[in-house]
Amino acid sequence: MNETPRRPSPESLLAKLKESERAKLRVYIGAAAGVGKTYQMLEDAHQFKKQGVDIVVAIVETHGRAETEAMIGDLECVPMREIEYRSVTLREMDVDAVIARRPEIAIVDELAHTNIPGSKRHKRYEDVLELLDAGISVITAVNIQHIESLNDVVERTTGVKVRETVPDSFLRRADEVVNVDVSVDTLRTRLRQGKIYRVEKIEQALTNFFRKGNLSALRELALRQVAEDQAAKAQDYRDREGLEQAVIPEKVMVCIASRGGAKKLLRIGSRIAGRLASDWYAVYVETPREEPGRIGPKDYVSLVEGLRFAEELGAKVVKLKGGNVADALIDFARREGVTHVIFGQSARSRWDVLLRGSVINRFLNEVRDATVQVVPLEGRDSRRNEAEQLLE
Fold first, then answer.
1. What is the Rg, in whole angstroms, of the alpha carbon atoms belonging to the chain?
2. Does 242 fall in a domain?
3. Is the dihedral of CA 358, 364, 370, 374 positive or negative?
4. One domain for residues 274 and 202
5. Whether 306 and 190 share a structural domain
């Protein structure tokens, strides 16, 4: 159906002009601590730095996680501000120092954090708004339970009253809201391994907030929040461009490769498609090194199994050919009007990110009207796994 253009109002034209000039805000949302939001932000930072973007770490909370600490690497970190509170010296993000430094982008972790008494502002999200007003773009992260409008729902579901919240208006200010997801079992395994909390807190967390039912409900809330955010932004765009409000069917794309992990991504894609869409695709990009006769036997078997599983779940299997995975996926998503994309991603070394780049970042930068879900994949071997291939 052809879209019927309407003449934009002066107000919408002014809003469009202001939006093109303002600093950008990207928010990563996760169901709980430990899904990989901070790691994702740092990976983004290295990729932007490689591209010549002036980016700094304003604050990152590593919580003693070795992988996260190592990921900071050679990123520039703005010195923290020291504040005396009850005879103890504490450290907080120095907003004035970040503004004086004037980077293009600042990384700000733990969005819902309440600042130490004596800080310039009460809440960290207020600090982020000040950075945006100063013309500095921000990449930040928050767990779904900290969204103000979901506070009562989270308490009824988990039995936990969350004290620190972020107003929904802040998310409406965001240019991009991305869901960073991981399975319930994987998250609980990370918790048992001491990758989320200290040893003395593990059992308490497993039997309380990190119960399977709680985590499943929080994952669904995160997915719904991102989907609703995307729908609202799409409607705003059509209003601004003077387009009629058409009903657009959702289309889901699962990006798979030949090195394992496809079943996990496809199961997630099937669940999402069942809720949101009638059409969904399992898309594989065949690069020159994986052409028939060149692909390794184990990779070939893994690929065939993944594609067969996709067909069993009802996906439309699409095989693309191209020398660049990102270009092929972006072109397909645009051509088919894909609205929800699922990527797999494993923990990658900083040097791997710098050398190979990130398909996810390319996709986020170039396909603005699709919701992107990043699913961490566990395990690495010498052949590299699916997520690493996707991110080349």
1. 21
2. no
3. positive
4. no
5. no
Examine the domain organization and report whether 254 and 222 are in the same domain.
Answer: no
Is the pLDDT at 365 greater than 60? The verdict is yes
Are residue 215 and residue 354 in the same domain, yes or no?
no
Distances (CA, A) of 246 to 89, 155, 242, 279, 368: 56, 36, 12, 18, 18
Residue 154 tokens, joined = 């989270």
Q: At 57, is the secondary structure helix, strand, or coil?
A: strand
Residue 298 and residue 198 in one domain:
no
What's the total number of domains in the chain? 2
If asked whether residues 96 and 151 sit together in one domain, one would say yes
- In the Cβ-directed half-sphere of 287, how many Cα atoms lie within 13 Å? 16
Q: Between the CA atoms of 60, 65, 69 and 71, what dihedral angle is there, to the nearest 10 degrees? A: -100
d(CA 191, CA 88) in angstroms, rounded, equals 30
Domain that holds residue 141: 10-231
Pairing mode, strands 88-92 and 81-85? antiparallel
Residues 15, 306: Cα–Cα separation, whole Å? 46
pLDDT digits 0-9 by tens, 131-153:
999 999 999 999 999 998 888 88
Report the distance separating Cα 313 and Cα 267, nearest Å.
8
How is residue 209 written in tokens?
């907030």
| Of 231, 266, 283, the domain-final residue | 231
**Strand segments (E) across 130-276:** 137-143, 176-180, 250-256
Structural domain ending residue among the three candidates 178, 196, 231: 231
In a shared domain, residues 220 and 279? no
Task: Report the interhelical angle of 359-366 vs 37-50 (nearest 10°).
Answer: 80
What is the pLDDT confidence band of residue 129, given thresholds at 50, 70 and 90? very high
**pLDDT tier at 201, thresholds 50, 70, 90:** confident
155 lies in some domain:
yes
Query: Is residue 124 scored above 80 in pLDDT?
Result: yes
Confidence of residue 392 (pLDDT cuts 50, 70, 90): very low
Q: Could you give the CA distance from residue 264 to residue 303 in angstroms, rounded to a whole number?
A: 14
Q: Which of 294, 280, 295, 263 is nearest to 377 (CA)?
A: 263
For residue 193, tell me if it sits in a domain. Answer: yes
Regarding predicted confidence, which is higher, 279 or 55? Answer: 55
pLDDT digits (tens, 9 = 90+) for 210-239: 899 889 889 888 888 888 777 777 777 777
**pLDDT band, very low/low/confident/very high, at 20 (cuts 50, 70, 90):** low
Find, among 202, 210, 209, 207, the residue nearest to 185 by Cα: 210
More confident residue, 23 or 389: 23
